[in-house]
Amino acid sequence: MTSTVTDAWHVLKPPEGDKHGPLSPLLLALTVVTGLVDAFSYLVLGHVFVANMTGNVVFLAFALVGAPGFSLPASLVALAAFVLGAVGAGRLIRHVGSSRRGRMLAVSTACECLLVTAALVVSLIATDVGSGAARYVLIVVLGLAAGMQNGTARKLAVPDMTTTVLTMTVTGAAYDSRLAGGTNSHIGRRGLSATAMFVGALVGAATVIHVSKPLELLFALLLLVPVTLVAGRLSRSHPVWDREP
Question: How many domains does the chain have?
Answer without folding.
Answer: 1
